[in-house]
Amino acid sequence: MAVHTRILSVLAAFSTERPNLTLSEISRLTGLPKGTAHRIVTQLVDWGALERDERHYVIGLKMFEIGTLAPRAYRHRSRILPFLEEAAAATGADVMLAVLDKDQAVLVEHLVGRRAVALAAGLGERLPLHASGVGHVMLAFGPAELLNLVCSRPLTPVTSRTITDPAELRAVVARVREAGVAVVPHSMVPGTVSVAAPIFAERHALAGVMLFVAPVARTNTALFAKTALRISHRISAALCAAES
Q1: Which of 18, 27, 198, 230 is paired with 241 by a 20 to 30 Å CA distance?
Q2: Domains and their CATH numbers in the chain
Q3: Which residues of 205-224 are buried (b: 16+ CB within 10 A; e: fewer)?
Q4: pLDDT of residue 116
Q5: Where is the IclR-ED domain positioned along the sequence (predicted)?
Q6: Cβ proximity of 238 and 79 under 8 Å
Q7: What would the pLDDT profile of 139-185 be if each residue is shown by its tens digit?
Q8: What gap in Å lies between CA 135 and CA 128, rounded to an integer?
Q9: Residue 16 — pLDDT band, cuts 50, 70, 90?
């Protein structure tokens, strides 16, 4: 069996009925020797096509970027989508949902608003954490070590307003943590403002970030921030209730 056929057979072993597989199950379903299956799975994990959850393997977010199984991997999407639709109707802004993948934000949902606005990234694409409102929220409410990791690397500017000083980034993240919402004008695209708020699941774990993007000149940012907080709190309550 050719190498690419073996790799495809491993990916094809996953389905909506079998979203989590052990190495033994992958070996059995594909007919590959366990050693061969282990080598392929390790390569797929390194590349991001698979992720390991304790003793199981699951489809990784990298697969979302190439348009295959990753949308199904985000298990909260169906519960969150009605709230995003409500937010889009209330604000007229582009409304997006992002999740954290290692040290980047990945956009997994996008509802187009009534206002024409340029976007820094589209569905399935990634945003740097230091240069975006959604990233500031992830740094404020994500894993404790994430901010140190980002600040240990060069903060590459995206626009002239990008934060490139680690001390300044830490101060901004602290303010976001206190306010519960990030309001960032001209962060990734000049002339736009992004308003981002965290979504929590059970045990106050960060499940995602809701993001509004609109033209800065025609946006009441204080009202957008209140709306983002209100709807994100309702989403978090719904997720926690569903998991209790």
Answers
A1: 18
A2: 3-68 (1.10.10.10), 74-243 (3.30.450.40)
A3: ebbbbbbbbbebeebebeeb
A4: 65
A5: 62-244
A6: yes
A7: 999 998 999 999 999 999 988 889 999 999 999 999 999 999 999 98
A8: 7
A9: low
Interatomic CA distance for residues 193 and 223, integer angstroms: 13
Q: What is the mean pLDDT of residues 10-24?
A: 89
Classified as helix, coil or strand, 192 is strand
Three-state SS at 195: strand
Q: Among 87, 74, 73, 75, which Cα is nearest to 232's?
A: 87
Quickly state the pLDDT bin for 244 (edges 50, 70, 90). Answer: low
Note whether 203 and 142 are within 8 A (CB).
no
Between CA 131 and CA 139, with CA 134 as vertex, the angle to 5 degrees is 80
Half-sphere exposure of residue 44: CA atoms within 13 angstroms, side-chain side: 27
pLDDT tens-digit map of 227-236: 999 999 999 9
CB contact set of 137 (below 8 Å; sequence gap of 6+): 176, 181, 182, 196, 197, 198, 209
Strand ranges (E), 81-159: 94-101, 104-111, 126-128
Q: How far apart are CA 164 and CA 152, in angstroms?
A: 12
Strands (E), 103-200: 104-111, 126-128, 182-185, 192-200
Percent of the chain clearing pLDDT 90 (strictly above)? 58
